[in-house]
Recover the amino acids of this structure.
């Protein structure tokens, strides 16, 4: 059973971009796709724990800012070296302009 | 004075120095200086496109086709020399920057184009695509960190004979061939085992076997034709045309401070003319590249303009860079603790107190 946490407002994120979100000491990355859908993943790359919020969002891909490892942020799937471990993802829902992520 | 042999041992990835670097917090990799560029501008600079790299790749491979054809036409006469000289630099030197940019996945927007040029460039520059991807990943995490960085070209003290021999491919090429044979037999060197994950190793071995088959075909063609002409096109250009790879590459970090976490202080940006920047695909903007590895090569000049006030001054030319590098490397032969201290301009933000520009370990 997920606990829904308000992470940000929809306007806080530009289309095709990502922002960081912290909750109880854990980092998350919140994405807005080019189609205006919202997604959430762990905040750090599974390769060397770089912050993904400084990375580049291209379509459904987030690219890590240090070693250019790529994930599909809609599924968390790692797209090959140097990222070999998938990214944890979290359910998202949007209500009245607020983005909630499901934790736990 | 530190003994040369003892100090050189500290570069080993399988010695104790790497553990010391980890314990000292030098090998974390998550903490590096980045100039403050507004997110929207950064997104603009990071944006990928296929156009510039397709244009440059057509020119690169097209020029190789033209020079190679003319070299073959005039083969047997001195007229072939300038054409193979040009072909060799395009093959043996320009492949280094294509390996680099496509390895980062930033040259093209299309992942397939990036991968295709990466595989070709790897073959030309004789670097296993999987091993070198992981070694370069480590280089970015631990740039010039003793015991961690597998890509330190100029140690302190420098192995001068090796450096000079490499301008003619006399060390790196035999080592690359030895490694390819080793990989073909399903093995890695001890150092490669420290950074190539188990799950990636099958790819290393498969590529090595394919490459050996290509080399065998080239040798067979030489034997059958009674001429080295086939090898002048494939393999040998890495030997006779690889010198510019080192002319460019040594400017990146030679003589700079080790165990420094701020890339402004252990890396050079060198201004070069258009021809050099084409061959080197703007890798001369190397401080900027280490700071922001996601910026495509064709946007690096813009990034440089954006952040140059926060960097130590760029070197105005290759000549200016080597006027610093050569004396520094020669001085390090006698005093390995010496390094080039770069000074940030007044007002430039420091990374943090732990790395204020002074090497932490001598």
């Amino acid at each position: 059973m997920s606990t829904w946490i308000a992470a940000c407002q929809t306007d806080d994120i530009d289309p095709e971009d990502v922002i960081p979100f912290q909750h109880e000491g854990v980092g998350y990355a919140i994405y807005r796709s080019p189609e205006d859908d919202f997604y959430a993943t762990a905040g750090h790359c599974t390769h060397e724990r770089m912050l993904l919020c400084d990375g580049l969002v291209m379509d459904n891909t987030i690219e890590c800012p240090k070693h250019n490892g790529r994930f599909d942020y809609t599924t968390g799937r790692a797209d090959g070296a140097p990222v070999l471990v998938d990214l944890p993802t979290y359910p998202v829902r949007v209500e009245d302009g607020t983005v909630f992520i499901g934790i736990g | 004075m530190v003994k040369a042999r003892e100090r050189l041992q500290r570069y080993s990835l399988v010695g104790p120095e790497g553990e010391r670097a980890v314990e000292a917090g030098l090998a974390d990799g998550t903490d590096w200086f980045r100039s403050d560029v507004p997110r929207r501008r950064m997104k603009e600079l990071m944006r990928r496109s296929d156009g510039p790299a397709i244009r440059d790749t057509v020119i690169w491979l097209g020029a190789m086709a033209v020079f190679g054809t003319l070299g073959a036409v005039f083969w047997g006469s001195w007229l072939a020399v300038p054409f193979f000289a040009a072909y060799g630099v395009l093959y043996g030197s320009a492949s280094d920057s294509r390996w680099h940019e496509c390895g980062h996945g930033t040259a093209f927007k299309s992942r397939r184009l990036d991968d295709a040029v990466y595989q070709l460039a790897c073959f030309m520059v004789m670097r296993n695509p999987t091993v070198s991807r992981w070694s370069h990943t480590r280089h970015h995490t631990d740039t010039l960190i003793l015991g961690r960085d597998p890509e330190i070209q100029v140690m302190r003290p420098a192995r001068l004979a090796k450096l000079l021999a490499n301008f003619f491919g006399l060390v790196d090429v035999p080592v690359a061939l030895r490694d390819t044979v080793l990989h073909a037999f399903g093995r890695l060197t001890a150092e490669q085992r420290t950074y190539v994950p188990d799950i990636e190793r099958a790819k290393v071995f498969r590529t090595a076997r394919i490459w050996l088959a290509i080399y065998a075909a080239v040798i067979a063609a030489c034997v059958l034709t009674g001429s080295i002409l086939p090898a002048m096109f494939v393999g040998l250009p890495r030997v006779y045309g690889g010198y510019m790879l080192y002319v460019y590459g040594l400017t990146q970090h030679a003589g700079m401070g080790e165990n420094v976490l701020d890339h402004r202080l252990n890396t050079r940006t060198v201004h070069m003319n258009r021809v050099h920047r084409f061959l080197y695909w703007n890798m001369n903007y190397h401080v900027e590249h280490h700071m922001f590895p996601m910026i495509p090569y064709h946007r690096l000049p813009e990034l440089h303009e954006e952040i140059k006030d926060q960097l130590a001054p760029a070197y105005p030319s290759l000549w200016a860079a080597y006027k610093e590098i050569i004396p520094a490397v020669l001085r390090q032969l006698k005093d390995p603790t010496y390094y080039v201290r770069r000074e940030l301009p007044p007002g430039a933000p420091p990374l943090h107190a732990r790395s204020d520009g002074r090497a932490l370990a001598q």
In short: The CA atoms of residues 1 and 226 of chain B lie 55 Å apart. Chain B has 20 helices and no strands. The interface with chain A takes residues 29-30, 32, 34, 39-40, 43, 46-48, 104-106, 109, 130, 133-134, 137, 140-141, 197, 199-200, 292-294 of chain B (CB under 8 Å). Chain B has one domain: 4-355.
